[in-house]
Write a structure and sequence with these properties.
Layout lengths: L2 H7 L22 H9 L2 H11 L2 H14 L4 H8 L3 H11 L7 H25 L11 H9 L5 H5 L6 H14 L7 H5 L3 H11 L5 H11 L4 H18 L7 H16 L5 E5 L3 E3 L2 E5 L1 E7 L4 E10 L6 H13 L3 E6 L10 H19 L5
Parallel strand pairs: 5-6
Antiparallel strand pairs: 1-4, 2-3, 4-5
Helix pairs in contact: 1-12, 2-4, 5-6, 7-10, 8-10, 14-15, 15-17
Length: 371
C-alpha cells in the first residue's frame, strides 16, 4: 500500500469545530487569498470540510494564518488542531498550499506546476494509445481498462474523457510512465486527495509501497535535505521549551537561522555559514551571529552581522557605532531588539518571526527584486 493511500485512509472521523477567535483571528478580516480559495472549492469538498470542521472558510483562514503567516511546521499545526500531521498534509494538498509556506512562492510554484501537469495530461491522452496492453509490461493497464466497464460513465465524462478506456490509459500513463504524483492531479481535476486515491484504487492503479518509493526516486520528489531540516527545526523548538533563561534565545535564533536559511536560498547555488559570537572582526566589538552567504555561481561572498539585544542591555549609541563599523568593513548589519526583558523568552513563535525576517532581509540583499 502506497504511503499516500495510507494517508487517505486515515481521515478524521471526530468533528473538530474551529472558532477563529480561539486563535486570535478576526473573522471580519479574513485575507482575500482565503476568500478566493474558498470560492474555488468544489461543493463536495466544502461539504466534507464542514462536516468535520464546522466551517470551510474558518479552516482555510486558520491554515493560511498558521502556515503562511506564522510559518509553523505541519506537526505544530497538527498539535494546535489536535489532529494527526497526515491530516494537515491532506488539507494542504487539497488546497495546493503544500509547495511552500511563503505565499507568493507557493503561488508561483503552483502556477508553474499546474501548467506542466496540464501539458503532461494532453500528452498522456495521445501517447497512451500507443501502449500495448497485451504485454506483461502494461498488465496493470489491461486490468484498469477492464475495470472501467463497471464504473459509471459520469466518473470519466465529468473529467473530460470521452471513453472509459481513454480515462484508464491516461491515468496509467501519468502514474506509471511519467511517474506523476497523484497529488498533482488534485487541482487539474478539481478533486480531493482522497477522491483521487479512490479513483486510482478502483482502477487498480494505486501504487504499492515499493512502487511508490520507486516513483518518488524516479521523479526525484523526495527532498531528503529538506526533510532533515524540518526535523531540526522541530527539535530546536522542543529544546527551547526546556530553557528557562531568556538569554538563551540568542542560541535558538542562531540554530533556527541555520535551519531556515535554505528555505530562502537554493542550496545548489548558495552555501551558508552561521557562526558563533565573534570578537575580532569589528575590533573589540562582538558580532553576536556572523552569517556568511556564498554564491557559488557568481563566486561572491555576502557577510551579515546579526546583533541580538535584549531591551535591558540595549544601547542605541552602541548599536549605531557597531553598525557604522560593520558597514565600513563590508558587513551588512541586521539587528534583533527585544522590546521588553521577557517578551521573547521561550516563545518560538515570536522568535521564528524574527528568524524569517532576517532571512528575508538577507535574501533581498543577495537576490534583490525577488519576493
Amino acid at each position: 500500500m502506497a504511503a499516500e493511500e495510507e494517508i487517505a485512509r486515515r481521515e478524521i472521523t471526530m468533528p473538530i469545530k474551529i472558532n477563529l477567535s480561539d486563535f486570535d483571528i478576526n473573522p471580519e478580516k479574513i485575507p482575500q487569498e482565503v476568500e478566493d480559495k474558498y470560492h474555488l472549492l468544489p461543493n463536495g469538498s466544502r461539504v466534507q470540510i464542514e462536516r468535520v470542521y464546522g466551517s470551510a472558510r474558518n479552516l482555510l483562514a486558520l491554515l493560511y494564518q498558521l502556515w503562511f503567516v506564522e510559518k509553523l511546521e505541519k506537526s505544530e499545526i497538527a498539535t494546535k488542531l489536535n489532529i494527526q500531521t497526515e491530516n494537515v498534509h491532506i488539507q494542504l494538498y487539497n488546497l495546493s498550499w503544500y509547495y511552500s509556506n511563503d505565499y507568493n512562492q507557493n503561488k508561483q510554484l503552483f502556477e508553474k506546476d499546474i501548467k506542466e501537469t496540464k501539458s503532461m495530461l494532453a500528452e498522456a491522452k495521445t501517447k497512451s494509445l500507443l501502449l500495448d496492453v497485451a504485454t506483461n509490461e502494461h498488465s496493470k493497464l489491461n486490468g484498469a481498462i477492464n475495470r472501467t466497464k463497471q464504473i459509471h460513465q459520469k466518473t470519466y465524462l465529468n473529467l473530460g474523457f470521452r471513453t472509459g478506456e481513454e480515462y484508464a490509459r491516461t491515468l496509467y500513463y501519468l502514474i506509471y510512465v511519467k511517474h506523476l504524483s497523484p497529488i498533482k492531479l488534485i487541482p487539474v481535476f478539481n478533486l480531493t486527495f482522497g477522491t483521487i486515491q479512490l479513483r486510482l484504487q478502483t482502477l487498480g492503479l494505486n501504487a504499492s509501497h515499493e512502487e511508490g518509493i520507486a516513483n518518488k526516486k524516479e521523479r526525484k520528489s523526495q527532498n531528503y535535505e529538506k526533510s532533515i531540516r524540518a526535523g531540526k527545526k522541530t527539535r530546536a523548538k522542543s529544546q527551547l521549551e526546556s530553557i528557562s533563561i531568556g538569554s538563551k534565545n540568542q542560541d535558538y535564533v542562531r540554530t533556527q537561522l541555520s535551519n531556515y536559511v535554505y528555505d530562502y536560498f537554493d542550496s545548489k547555488r548558495y552555501e551558508a555559514i552561521i557562526g558563533l559570537s565573534n570578537t575580532g572582526i569589528l575590533g573589540s566589538l562582538e558580532i553576536d551571529i556572523p552569517v556568511i552567504i556564498y554564491d557559488v555561481t557568481e563566486r561572491k561572498i555576502y557577510r551579515f552581522a546579526v546583533e541580538y539585544n535584549g531591551s535591558y542591555f540595549h544601547s542605541v549609541t552602541d548599536d549605531e557605532n557597531k553598525k557604522e563599523l560593520a558597514e565600513k568593513k563590508g558587513w551588512h548589519y541586521l539587528a534583533i531588539i527585544e522590546t521588553s526583558s521577557d517578551r521573547f523568552s521561550n516563545d518560538s513563535k515570536l522568535l521564528n518571526t524574527f528568524v524569517h525576517e532576517l532571512c528575508h532581509q538577507m535574501k533581498n540583499i543577495v537576490i534583490p527584486n525577488v519576493n
